[in-house]
# Entry
Amino acid sequence: MTDDRPDSAPPRHSGSLLTGVTALLLLAFVGVVGGAVLVSMPSTGGRPVVYPTFGLPAGTPAATSAAPPRASGPFDGTPAAGFPQGQAGIALPAAKRTGPFTEKQVAAALAKVRTVLVTARLDRGFMTTDDPEPLIRLFARDARAGLRKSFASDTFAAYATRLAPGARLTADQPRVKGRISYRATKDADGIRILAVTTNFVWAYAFRTSSMVPGDGLVVVHDTVVWSMPHPDDVKRGSNGLWIEDANSYTANVDCAAFDKGLLGLGTRSFGGPDAVFDPAATLDLPDTC
# Structure
């Protein structure tokens, strides 16, 4: 847990919450042609982070001599062709009373997480401007300083998308696949929290002259734990959404741009295994950047 804590308060309102947003940037080394990198935030309260990993599916050859068919659309010939478009890929689970959290509180937390995902990963205005505040103001007031620090570095890439200067998406909506789950738990200081875990693959179509399937795609796979404290356990400034931990990998990315946390299309052909599109795959990846 970081030290971005609210001011002192009575014991049951200590507000010692989890940000994770002043995280380290970890670059693993990934064997995906075109570049794939891992960005991670550390766990909090001593809880380990489980990294999704991927490898070639069993029985799949590492290479083939057959030329791939020419693609008529940016997602054609890749698993992302079957993914929902944009917000349609972010389906919420049914809200149910969970531990001390009422059905209404769970529903509100899920709705807030969905709004954050849409802004952070799909909103083109947010992705193409330098102002992170439209996203930051969706979080608890006391979480915002830590988030601003992450945008001043490159660690925001674990949970948000910003495009590199000159990078241009096609008119196609990103393709999205994944799932959301939640549970009631406590942080290291005994504050009751609703932890909402999201695990999504985001496939972005960039402008390119190549007609090879997947060459115009940058793929991001992220797993994020968002936390909502019980309002009886924290003071007002800490009441709201926080990030507990987050990690992601990115494939076919421009490595120089991603050193700054920004997305741009890799200069080499994609050529990666279908597993990079699988939100159920795990993330202990080698890296070509």
Q: What stands out?
A: The radius of gyration is 19 Å.
